[in-house]
């Protein structure tokens, strides 16, 4: 089991202290993990993959500006999605890394695509784990799966509401916000929306309940500011044509976030793109099938 410190330290990047974890020696291939959420943090990925990957890569995981163990965003701080991208680029320079590979999970795939096409000379490879490139498409597909779960639980009205939303012409922002409001109605069944294989679990007791509550408060500020800005609702599908690096899309067969249209566009538009689908995973292959996930990542980077 990893120690509570997770090999983490605070590094001041562009005026904010960011929590950065580094595993593996400097002579190994640098791999930056970009978490999703928005505002999820890197705890879960490090817990399941740091020890597995560090023998072969130099894994770098960051809690984004204002998230979890990083310094919070104050009311008078300016903050936008572009700050997240600039933070990663400044961190690369601070660590003396010429080029690094990216591994973006979920909405971290969105950030990875944005970063790789903004700073293409800084990125050697890209791994997208169950990404969203188009938040509207991801929300619609997730609503369809939520509808099935509501139906299984006998909540016909909510099942129908989810389907109606998925088939509506509402904006990506409206869909995502309404999706967020409906999902708590699934109760414990809500875990099945994103997780298929429950064999592997995460020990969250390494931080106290008070600490997790503090993280949650900071994460909400981060999320609210991004929602207010609106940029996170824009489709990045057109930018897939700009990807020049070798790219791998790792998907779970039960993952509702990366719909077929997004996968087809990735394979059609990314010149050096390939995909691999894990057969016993939902949205979190890195912990649902951790050994297979690790092997796929390392094989691709070789």
UniProtKB/TrEMBL annotation:
<dbReference type="GO" id="GO:0004177">
    <property type="term" value="F:aminopeptidase activity"/>
</dbReference>
<comment type="similarity">
    <text>Belongs to the peptidase S33 family.</text>
</comment>
<dbReference type="InterPro" id="IPR000073">
    <property type="entry name" value="AB_hydrolase_1"/>
</dbReference>
<protein>
    <submittedName>
        <fullName>Alpha/beta hydrolase</fullName>
    </submittedName>
</protein>
<keyword id="KW-0378">Hydrolase</keyword>
<dbReference type="InterPro" id="IPR002410">
    <property type="entry name" value="Peptidase_S33"/>
</dbReference>
<dbReference type="InterPro" id="IPR029058">
    <property type="entry name" value="AB_hydrolase_fold"/>
</dbReference>
<dbReference type="GO" id="GO:0016020">
    <property type="term" value="C:membrane"/>
</dbReference>
<dbReference type="GO" id="GO:0006508">
    <property type="term" value="P:proteolysis"/>
</dbReference>
<dbReference type="Pfam" id="PF00561">
    <property type="entry name" value="Abhydrolase_1"/>
</dbReference>
<feature type="domain" description="AB hydrolase-1">
    <location>
        <begin position="30"/>
        <end position="290"/>
    </location>
</feature>
<dbReference type="InterPro" id="IPR050266">
    <property type="entry name" value="AB_hydrolase_sf"/>
</dbReference>
């Amino acid at each position: 089991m990893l120690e509570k410190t997770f090999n983490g330290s605070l590094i001041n990047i562009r005026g904010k202290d960011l929590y950065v974890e580094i595993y593996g020696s400097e002579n190994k291939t640098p791999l930056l993990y970009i978490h999703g959420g928005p505002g999820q943090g890197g705890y879960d990925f490090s817990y399941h993959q740091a020890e597995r990957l560090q023998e072969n890569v130099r894994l770098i995981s960051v809690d984004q500006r204002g998230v979890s163990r990083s310094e919070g965003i104050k009311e008078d701080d300016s903050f936008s999605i572009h700050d997240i991208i600039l933070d990663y680029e400044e961190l690369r320079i601070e660590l003396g890394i010429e080029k690094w590979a990216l591994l973006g999970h979920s909405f971290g795939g969105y950030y990875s695509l944005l970063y790789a096409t903004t700073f293409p000379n800084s990125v050697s490879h890209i791994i997208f784990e169950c990404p969203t490139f188009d938040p509207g498409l991801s929300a619609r597909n997730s609503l369809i799966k939520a509808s099935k779960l509501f139906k299984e639980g006998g909540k016909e009205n909510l099942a129908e509401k989810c389907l109606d939303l998925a088939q509506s012409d509402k904006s990506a922002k409206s869909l995502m916000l309404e999706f967020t409001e409906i999902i708590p109605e699934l109760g414990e069944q809500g875990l099945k929306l994103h997780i298929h294989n429950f064999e592997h679990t995460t020990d969250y007791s390494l931080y106290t309940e008070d600490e997790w509550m503090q993280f949650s408060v900071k994460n909400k500020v981060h999320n609210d500011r991004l929602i207010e800005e609106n940029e996170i609702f824009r489709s990045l599908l057109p930018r897939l044509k700009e990807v020049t690096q070798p790219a791998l899309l790792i998907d779970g067969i039960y993952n509702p976030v990366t719909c077929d249209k997004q996968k087809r566009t990735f394979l059609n538009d990314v010149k050096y793109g390939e995909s691999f689908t894990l057969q016993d995973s939902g949205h979190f292959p890195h912990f649902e099938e951790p050994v297979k996930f690790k092997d796929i990542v390392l094989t691709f980077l070789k």
